[in-house]
Write a structure and sequence with these properties.
The protein is α+β, with helices and mostly antiparallel strands. 27% of the residues lie in helices and 35% in strands. It contains 2 helices and 3 strands; from the N terminus they run αβαββ. It is globular.
């Protein structure tokens, strides 16, 4: 998985950006071990919910 590679390279966290109108994508992010964090906006104003996974803990 990409998170294993990123952790092996010293990455601290993984961020998945999900547009709020796609709850299925949010569910995938949460099943992958990410937790809801903050809402941001792209340069064009599109809102994104961030889901964060700490890579400094053991990955199952």
């Amino acid at each position: 998985m990409a998170t294993e590679y990123a952790a092996g390279e010293g990455g601290a966290e993984a961020v998945i950006q999900v547009e709020p109108e796609y709850p299925a994508s949010a569910a995938v992010a949460q099943r992958a071990g990410s937790t809801p964090d903050q809402q941001t906006h792209s340069n064009d104003g599109t809102p994104f919910n961030w889901y964060i996974r700490d890579l400094r803990v053991a990955i199952p």
